[in-house]
Amino acid sequence: MGVSVLARQTPSAVPAAPEGLAAKRRRRPAGGAGPAIFDHRFLPYLLVLPELVVVGVFFVWPTVRTFVEAFERSNAFGLGTRFSGLSNFVDAVANGNYLQALEVTVVFAASTTVASMAIGLFLAVEVEHLRRGKAVYRTLFVWTYAVPGAIAGSLWLFLFQPDLGPGARLLTQLGVHWNFALHGAQALGLVVALTVWQQSAYNFLFFTAGLQTVPGHVYEAAAIDGAGALGTFWLITLPLLSPTTLLLSVMDVLYAFFSSFAVIDIVTQGGPAGATTTLVYQLYQDGFQNADTGLAGAETVVLIAIAAVFLFAQVRLLERRAHYR
Amino acid sequence: MRDSRQVRRHFLTAGRRWKAAAAVLAGAALAANLASPPASASSAPTTLTWWTAMSGTNGDAVQHLVDEFNSSQHAYRVVPTFKGSYPTVLSDTIAAFRAHNAPDIAQIFDAGTATIMDANGVYQPVHSLMAQYHLPFATSDFIGGAASYYETAGDQLDSLPFNSSTPVLYYNKTLLAKAGIAAPPATWDQLDADAKALAAKGVGCALTSSGAYVMWTDMEEFDMWNGYQFASQDNGYQGTKGVKLMLDTPPMVAHWSMLGQLAKKDQYLWNGTTNSTVPLFSGGTCAMYEQSSADLATITAAAKFPFGVASLPTVNGDHNAPQNTVVGGASLWVLSGQPSAHYQGDAEFLHFLMSGPAQAYWASHTGYVAVTNAGVKVLDQENFYKSHPSDLVANRELTYKAPKAYTRGIRLGYLPEIRDVEAAAISEVLSGKETAAQALAGAQAQGDKILSEFAAQYGG
Questions:
Q1: Cis peptide leading into B306, omega within 30 of 0?
Q2: Domain B167-325+413-457 belongs to what topology?
Q3: Which of A12, A162, A273 sits opposite B271 (nearest CB)?
Q4: pTM value?
Q5: Helix B250-264 × helix B415-430 angle, to 10°
Q6: Nearest alpha-carbon partner for B259 in B328, B317, B309, B195
Q7: Nearest residue in A to B414, CA atom
Q8: Does B7 sit within 8 Å of A37, measured CB to CB?
């Protein structure tokens, strides 16, 4: 900020630099008492250069390449590249796999978001009512979020390995014909449960923070008016938490769309028969495993469009119902 | 006025400092250049990188051969790198090639052959490389099954056939004896009957297949061994345009219906491509096992019971069966874009690998067959086949009858991707979600799309 302010001023028109800068200036051997001697033309650009390079190399350039490749076709080795119009988009959308991946993504995002928000909110409200041991419960309910996706995936894979894992044997004893390597619904259930296990901790944390902002006098007023526990929750807690709810619903959906990769790659590799292949996993398979960068590029563009439209609608819808104080 | 002059002077000092810094950096770069030995020096060997999919026992054998080559001469030093599974080596090689950072030699598996072979400019054909450096090399130096799988339409080898195996039937002698079964099943009908006999004696699981490569054992090799075609145009040997899979055929549907029926009663087990099935056999859960002959060492180490090795069962009453199996495994490709000094080293190293002693070492320390006639000869002299009957079974399957035009191998572009589609269909059949006919028809439609995409991308 300071840099851009200085940059816009001519050298002679810098009357007084902030106290600290001026003090440093004075130690210079230049002799004069004049303040502020930065090179106003180049230094600001130099200072933002690292950030520009990072954004350019890691965000802008790949995005531009993706959009370009979405309209190109080449062989796996990237040779014989030629413009192919919209054919990659047609292939992506006409492909039954892609529609299945869209369906899986919607089911996955909806179930993980609703379940992890419900569990997170329930635990946060319950812990808030405790008189003692809040810190202990908060720590217990947050720690699963600190487990990296890859480790959580390996752990659950070990637990639910068909025929071998303790969790799998328990399910078999309960009469479930457990083999998530063959049964799609079981595989999807497993990755949903694992994601909820992790994400409800994140939701718990934010709901706990949100609850701290609900003023006590509102509850007192409700108690005086004779509101029950459920009524207080529906009419006071939930509406006053709505900004947190909005934020979390957006974050959870984004997580399900983009960050669920590690868990899926470790536990199911998108299988069986594509039952856990989300849009992100589909484009990983097409782009990285099958080296079809054109198709993967088109899928990325479609994914970005879907996510953008969805989030825009979500924010517009919930914004109307969110009460900011 | 005074202020602005000061600014200018300060800028000049800053400018000088930048220049000084740049000079220091340049000096450091120069020093680093001088410090590294010049490539042409006779004392420093040229490093050749080799990406492999070989770990464990196989990786040790690779390392042994490399060490032998490295100590036999001083001009080149081969450095093998284990990159992961076969599909990983292929996709990493592709990614590295696109980034102009490819290895000198890559071990590309059977299913990746067409994907790289049809990509002109990606590799240096091995046959022309050998001719260029005057090293003796002919397609006929290799055993029939290995040569036919990797040769071009013009009978030339663009890559060096390397580790080769073929699926066989391992059987648990104790469990079969328990059910009163005297010999391993020769036909699938017999296997079906044996499964009932085994179940009656409390052996729930009769059969399991390779985890990652059941598409290879029970689709590709099933077709070859029984004399059926896997895809049109001689499984893709005649061209790329218009090639169609032949999955949705009566024998294939019948085979997977039978396995689906067995799976319903847990008499056939397979848990997805990512779960190894070796423990199911070596732990005594399943009585029989369709798996690569290359897994013999692993199974021998793990199994605590006497077991035997037999040929794969055939389809009952089919006059063509048995025909011949084809090799699975990988061949070595020399990639383009390296400094020209590397290629002579690549040629000499590959020439070393096809020598009799190297092949004999490789075959006797892994489960793979010797791919050159010179290697087979050395093994014969060492009476190797007398002590390794499983290798004899593999060899007999590979050469049972002279191959027909459509049993030389599978030459389909993006075959790894097609195998993924097939694996998905298999899990639909085994979980009972779809019938074999539905699943195979779906897989064929999807696979044909992949083939037409390949034809379009490679310019047909």
A1: no
A2: D-Maltodextrin-Binding Protein; domain 2 (3.40.190)
A3: A162
A4: 0.79
A5: 50
A6: B195
A7: A290
A8: yes
SS3 label, residue A72? strand
Q: How many domains does chain A have?
A: 2
* Pair type for strands B46-52 and B105-109: parallel
Question: Mind listing the pLDDT tens digit for each residue in A277-308?
Answer: 999 999 898 888 888 888 889 999 988 888 88
Which residue range is the domain that position A184 belongs to? 91-321
Measured CA to CA, the distance from residue A36 to residue A23 in angstroms comes to: 10
| B138 contacts: CB under 8 Å, gap ≥ 6 | none
Distances from the Cα of B270 to the Cα of A190, B215, B277, B416, angstroms: 19, 12, 7, 19
Q: Which CATH number fits domain B46-165+327-381: 3.40.190.10, 3.40.50.620, 1.10.10.10, 3.40.50.300?
A: 3.40.190.10
- Same domain as A202, residue A125: yes
Is the same domain home to A18 and A36?
yes
CB contact under 8 A, A292 and B453: yes
This model of the complex carries an ipTM of: 0.71
CB-based contacts of B8, cutoff 8 Å, min separation 6: none
Interface test with A, best of B100, B124, B274 (most A CBs within 10 A): B274
In the block, residue with structure tokens 């598409």: B215
Pairing of strands A72-73, A82-83: antiparallel
Of A106, A112, A268, A269, nearest to A187 by C-alpha is A268
Q: How many CB atoms lie within 10 A of CB A217?
A: 8
CA atoms of B115 and B458, how far apart (whole Å): 9
Q: What is the pLDDT of residues B167-220, one digit of tens each?
A: 999 999 999 999 999 999 999 999 999 999 999 999 999 999 999 999 999 999
Of A40, A66, A87, at which residue does a domain stop? A87
Burial of A250 (0-12, 13-18, 19+ CB in 10 A): middle
Report the 3 state secondary structure along B180-195.
CCCCCCCEHHHHHHHH
- CA torsion angle A266 A271 A277 A281 (round to 10): 40
User: How close, in Å, is residue B195 to chain A by CA atoms?
Assistant: 20
Here the tokens at position B409 are 């191998």
